[in-house]
Amino acid sequence: MLWPVETRSVSPVFVGRNDELDTLNDALDRAGAAEPQALLLGGEAGVGKTRLVEEFATAACRRGAVVALGGCVEIGADGLPFAPFSTALRALRAALPDELAEAAAGQEDELARLLPELGEATSGRHDEQGMARLFELTARLLERVAAERTVVVALEDLHWADASTRHLLAYLLRTLRTGRLVVLATYRSDDIHRRHPLRPLLAELDRLRTVRRLELARFTREEVGRQIAGILAAEPDPAQVDDIFERSDGNAFFVEELAVAGAEGCCTGLTDSLRDLLLVRVEALPESAQRVARIVAEGGSTVEYRLLAAVAQLAEDDLIEALRAAVGANLLTATPTGDGYRFRHSLVREAVADDLLPGDRSRLNRRYAEALEADPQLVPADARVTRLASYWYQAHDPAKALPAALDASVVARRRHAYSEQLRLLERAMELWDTAPEEIRAALRPVDYTDVYPPCGCDPATTPLRYLDLMAEAAVAGRFCGERERALKITKKALRILQDEHDPQRAAWFWVQRSRLVQGLARGDGWQELGTAQDLVRGLPPSEVHADVLANAAAWSMLHEPGPEAFAAAERAVEYARMVGAREIELNARVTLGCLMVDAGDVDNGLAELERVKDAALQEGVAHVAGRAYTNLPSELESVGRSREAVPIQREGIAFARRYGLLDAEAWIWGNLSESLYALGQWDEAAEAAAGALGSAASAKPRGAGALHFAHVALARGDSAEAARRLAVARAHYGTHDPMPQAQLPVARIAIGVAAEEGRILDARAELDRALAAGFPPGTHRYGWPLLLAAATAEADARALPAAAEGRADALDRLAEAARKLTTGAPLWQAYERWTRAELLRARGTGTAAVWSDVVTGFECLDRPYDLARVRRRLAQALLEEATGDDERDRATELLRLAGAVADHLGARPLAEAVALLAQRARLTLTTRAAPRALDPAESLGLTSRERDVLRLVSAGRTNRQIAEELFISPKTASVHVSNILGKLGVAGRGEAAAVAHRLGMFPVEALGPTR
Fold it and tell me: Which of 538, 627, 636, 795 is such that its CA lies 20 to 30 A from the CA of 854?
């Protein structure tokens, strides 16, 4: 509903709450400046949360804001999925019909899951991102509606919220970025016990800096006096104020009840129980009004008038008189739309409901259910099935409750309310054994199930099985994030299947377990997939068989690519075609196309990926299209065709965003960052990495985004930022599910960071771990950059004494690994030459001819930074071998070109290396204004840590004293000193101090007193 809203309290005067109103009004001001605001308002029942929201909303409307209110609905122990959001969106549609229609354009079929008035919600694909897609579309819808006008969305009674509503609210508050929007949610703090489902959400939101949390305190005695004066329209007796303040303890609602009861003379003989006070108010009503109040209390938060009439079975005049009495006594109030009734305060409803006997409750719920079955139009269509399921369950009638729960689970699935679907399916499993056999025999899979394929049986004639419910529940649990519950369900299902010969169904459950184990970070899922393959081996082709093979092939592509993965993908395609499983076929063909490219059949593999993308788009298989958009440009990048990859990636991002494929969008952003980096567009690459971090729904694509950030930071000389991003990437990737496409790039960046910080032994350790894991077929795109990074680190550390021991062995291992790695594309042929050139440099045998061959390899590639790096190496080799002006002239031109690229990209280490080489060779690269003077430490190649150590060496500190001052170990200090001596080309600490003094590196005052 939209403001102005009818007031539910009897107090005509709004008392206190000045600080809270100031905070809310400040949020309104900030929202008006296009800074979205989120607030949580907590307080015990009756403390005045609703009244505060009313006052704020009225003030907001006066200032031109649109206010939409949505309340969580309680029906028995159930909450309607997304009820407060549906109500709020309905209100926005009534107030801003054109704006909301424009904002929802193109996504009506998805958003209709929340707002049926937008059209018919399509069945669509159900997957782990289905709910996230809906959430993303909802968040963007609200941002667009609030683009030009301030909008306040107030959600009341979160303590009754269903799980899907809680998840949507959390997503909304985490991701709001733009718009003139205020989101205000209220909850009862005294209801949030240790196991209350809202408690984890509140803890999560408390960690968000963008969410403000307010707690309403009880009234002081002075405020109670002002409230009583407003109610009585007269100054109260101080003794009365003292009495009411003591009995109410400052709770605003109880102050009202006690004041009204005192004014009406109802307090005589009452106990101190405030609950009794509320019931006395009810018992003072005529019998018919009491009966109606009991019916309304059991019907839910709100009961429609026509439904109430059908359940009460009173003559219309008698019903109206009873309602008039209840409304006149301020117990019931009409709904804003005028078509139903609710209790003025939920505390009164709870008191009345708690006073009912168990038999009364069961009888009333049965009458509600029978009335609703007789005339489904008595309640709104979007609430009908859920309410009927709740009424029959509370009526304790398994014969009716089982099919009703199943009907409600189908509706919940259609709305992507997977948490509610899981709860309803668990209820159906609870009712299964108590429901009559004839009822169970009449149920059909076609009506209630979606995830397990028929596999030879007719779902329209085959009876529904308990295992069918378990399959639906396991998938619903995975989709809503309740993986522990889903895993328990799969374990129980597999125990049941041990006594039944149904290998296809068992294989299907093992596939689900594989996904759950990976999602819970308890393994890589291969053991479970292996069991599934064993179960279907030798069986005739089926949809389950094809799906098992497709999953095994996809797993192998990421973990152990090679001939076995290729064969599994081919068989998955073949079996899927045999049984007409088009979606599985297309998915397996994506895997097959990637494996073809990785195996060297580049053109045919790319053509297959292109065909799958076009087919998936034409046939509307969005998730396969998203996977094709992810992998096609990635494979183009893998063979050095970055410029071809970029437009496909941008197209894929738009597609993924349109269909809410959050992880696909994040993976494509990450791939785009990689391509842009290769093309020398580093600022755009960093923006793309941010896109991966911002759009991902799961951890791994976030890890890829962080790693791309680290790559750019390292190339620009910010090793500290690279190390931080590397740590973030490792945390997102985890250790439970190692994949070469993650582990090898992580190792490459780790080697680069260690080398930049002078930790050559740590770089070797990273290399050893990578070599021990090996480079499976098709992973050369990750292997060559890693080997190059390690070879470059060894060459750069050649003069360091700490690197001498073990160098020969490390270089031999690198050379051996390089011999085994494939070079199926010009890019990797160039990398192979580069890596071998660095190995020769590390051995002190590099030549200009070798580096000239490397430069030639890169000159035909579209990789400006790589070309600049090898040009600088060729220039260095030419200068070392120079016998005349020709070599110097060529070196000058090479350095000029390399320096220009480094300056353009902001590649500080390369720019400084170019400048230092030119300075040492006395070359003039340009006629422009001279660049800033290089810091002597940077010119010498010292890291920031080595600079600190050299300062202390110059001050005469021992290794132990250096360690104490820099909070490092003496051994680490010793390694740093050795590295410094090597870089300065000196034999001892005294000579190092003399060099530092001669270069003026440290003013006398910076050295401090010697010890």
Answer: 636
Residue in this structure with the two tokens 């995830």, named with its chain if needed: 451
Using CA atoms of 855, 856, 860, 866 in order, give the dihedral in degrees to the nearest 10.
Answer: -10
Q: Average pLDDT in the 269-296 region? A: 76
Strands, E assignment, 511-587: none
Q: DSSP label at 67?
A: E
pLDDT at 455 over 70: no
3-state helix, strand, coil in the chain (%, to 5): 70, 5, 25
Count Cβ atoms within 10 A of the Cβ of residue 809 and give its class: 0-12 exposed, 13-18 middle, 19 or more buried. exposed
What pLDDT is recorded for position 659?
80
In the beta sheet, which residues pair with residue 212? 39
**Pairing status of strand 181-188 against strand 340-343:** unpaired
For residue 2, which of 336, 437, 307 has the smallest C-alpha distance?
336
Strand pairing partners for 155? 70, 185
* Tokens representing residue 668 in the block: 């494509």
Task: Give Cβ neighbours of residue 471 (< 8 Å, ≥ 6 apart).
Answer: 449, 451, 452, 493, 505, 508, 509, 512
For residue 929, pLDDT over 50 is answered with no
- Residue 233 has a CB neighbour count (10 Å cut-off) of 8
- What pTM was computed for the model? 0.77
**Dihedral sign of CA atoms 935, 936, 941, 944 in order:** negative
Average pLDDT rounded to a whole number, residues 423-429: 95
- pLDDT: which is higher, 122 or 688: 688
The phi and psi torsions of 127 (rounded to 5 degrees) equal -155, -175
Q: Where do the H-state alpha helices sit in 821-966?
A: 826-843, 848-859, 864-881, 885-905, 908-921, 936-939, 944-954, 959-966
| Lookup: tokens for 649 | 């990636």
| Cα separation, 854 vs 829, whole angstroms | 9
Given a contact cutoff of 8 angstroms between Cβ atoms, the answer to whether 441 and 407 are in contact is no
- Contact residues for 57 (Cβ-Cβ < 8 A; gap 6+): 3, 5, 67, 69, 152, 154
CA distance 169 to 891: 61
176 close to 210: Cβ distance less than 8 angstroms: yes
What sign has the CA pseudo-torsion 835, 841, 846, 849? positive
Higher per-residue pLDDT: 70 or 266: 70
What average pLDDT does the structure give for the chain?
87
Structure letter (DSSP) for residue 794: H
**pLDDT at position 1006 over 60:** no
For residue 735, the SS3 value is coil
DSSP code of residue 2: B
CA distances from 319 to 162, 296, 311 (A): 33, 12, 11
Question: Strands 340-343 and 332-334: what pairing?
Answer: antiparallel
The rounded distance, in Å, linking the Cα atoms of 722 and 800 is 23
> Which one is predicted more confidently, 350 or 515?
515
Lowest model confidence (mean pLDDT) among 308-317, 586-595, 852-861, 998-1007: 998-1007
**Burial degree of 212 (CB within 10 A; 0-12, 13-18, 19+):** middle
Per the document, the length of the chain is: 1011
| Residue with token string 């500290």 | 720
Helix (H), strand (E), coil (C) string for 439-481: HHHHCCHHHHCCCCCCCCCCCCCCCCCHHHHHHHHHHHHHHCC
- Could you give the C-alpha distances from 855 to 309, 404, 582, 861, 912, in angstroms and in order? 88, 73, 48, 10, 20
pLDDT in tens, 348-398: 888 888 888 889 999 999 999 999 999 999 998 888 999 999 999 999 999
In order, the DSSP letters of 615-636 are: HHHHHT-HHHHHHHHHHHHHHH
CA proximity to 183, closest of 117, 217, 138: 138
Distance CA 445, CA 452 (A): 9
